[in-house]
Design goal:
Length: 394
């Protein structure tokens, strides 16, 4: 139900959205995608389709004098059989760069997933509304960050004053790709994922291609990144290759080279940072695949375990330790001819001491406090003076 404001409805157009690589017109409105249609057409994996349609880092950005804003959306909420309900996705409101509101949308579609069988059921639901009121009068930049972990169709934007696209503030664009950890996993909200926190600290515009379960060195992801305008680029490689048990060392090394070659085709001199996995005790020395711990599921808890055999490392199976060693070697080899290529050991972001203090709740994914720590450490390493993303003129 609308309040007594004199509402102005503004068409949802691409110039009001940042962080998406593609926008799909649907029966309800506009669905942001983080992979372009050509890439999506090259992979039929349902997990990837779900992850790339969850708008981590995607936000509406506009300039207005409005004191009230309403956004109608159609979310798709996930339910895992036998696990306590997930909280509704979070919408963060930023005014002139400061977090001033946080809310959610009830209702929406439901995707019920049975982790034991892998089966999923989709049920349609109603459109909902997120509402922010009491904004300060006067012209201001407004950002509405969409839920990082909830597929979100945009239906209508209403304000009590006219809206125009926000001006370009001249900030550099940081393009990042990684796994569910980069996607946001259990962060408190869309501006609290570690890449969003690091981007805010670094004063850059984020394009987040963190894809839950989808950091698999896919050529179509590399081409999407190649074709996306960016000033700074990072790729966080490792955990999904292990927990999917996707390839052996023989395939891994040329796949990394190929991925980096493609990035360099489109961004030949941009600072490019390769980040190895953060510490994950279950997979440090034990190969994948990962699997849900059915005993924990029976008790209503979601936890993962490694099912591989450490002895299989001898035949080329990947562990996080193997991947870190190989990534460091690859970057050292390539950087002799590519001075803008850099390496960061993920354990500098989250290592053994951090795991003792802030263990991964489900064995794979960091919680909200750990996202903040990783974001602050990444910013302190990458954006600080002398770091690979530092402004040379600063």
């Amino acid at each position: 139900m609308h309040t007594t404001h004199d509402w102005i409805t503004t068409p949802l157009t691409p110039d009001l959205l940042r962080g998406a690589l593609d926008l799909e017109r649907t029966a309800h409105g506009l669905l942001p995608h983080r992979l372009p249609a050509r890439a999506r057409a090259q992979c039929a994996d349902g997990q990837l389709a779900m992850a790339e349609s969850q708008p981590s880092g995607v936000r509406l950005v506009f300039r207005t004098r409005a004191t009230a804003v309403e956004l109608d959306t159609l979310p798709t909420k996930r339910v895992y059989v036998g696990v306590p309900p997930r909280p509704d996705g979070v919408y963060d409101l930023l005014v002139d760069g400061r977090l001033t509101g946080r809310s959610g949308v009830a209702g929406g579609n439901t995707l019920t997933v049975d982790m034991a069988t892998g089966q999923a059921e989709h049920r349609p639901g109603p459109v909902g509304t997120v509402r922010f009121t009491g904004l300060a009068a006067g012209a201001k930049d407004v950002e509405i960050w969409l839920p990082h972990n909830e597929t979100t169709e945009l239906v209508a934007l209403r304000t009590d004053a006219p809206v125009e696209p926000a001006p370009d503030r001249g900030r550099k664009v940081w393009l990042h790709h990684g796994s569910s950890i980069s996607h946001g996993s259990d962060a408190a909200g869309p501006t609290s994922t570690w890449p969003a926190l690091a981007a805010a600290l670094g004063g850059v515009e984020l394009v987040n291609l963190g894809l839950g379960g989808g950091a698999l060195l896919d050529p179509f992801t590399a081409r999407a990144m190649r074709d996306t305008p960016a000033d700074l680029i990072s790729v966080k490689i490792g955990i999904n290759l292990v927990n999917a048990d996707l390839m052996r060392l023989r395939a891994f090394t040329p796949a990394v080279h190929g991925f980096l070659d493609t990035l360099r085709d489109g961004h030949p001199t941009a600072p490019l940072l390769v980040v190895s996995p953060i510490l994950c005790p279950i997979h440090e020395d034990t190969p994948g695949p990962s699997a849900p711990d059915l005993g924990a599921l029976d008790k209503g808890r979601l936890r993962f375990r490694a099912t591989g055999d450490p002895a299989e490392r001898a035949s080329g199976k990947l562990t996080l330790g193997v991947i870190r060693d190989e990534l460091a070697r690859i970057v050292a080899q390539r950087s002799a001819a590519d001075p803008n290529l850099h390496y960061l050991d993920g354990r500098d972001l989250y290592g053994a001491a951090d795991a003792a203090e802030l263990p991964l709740p489900d064995g794979l994914h960091p919680d909200a406090a750990t996202h903040r720590r990783i974001g602050e450490r990444f910013a302190g390493s990458a954006f600080a003076a002398g770091g690979p993303f530092a402004d040379p003129g600063a």
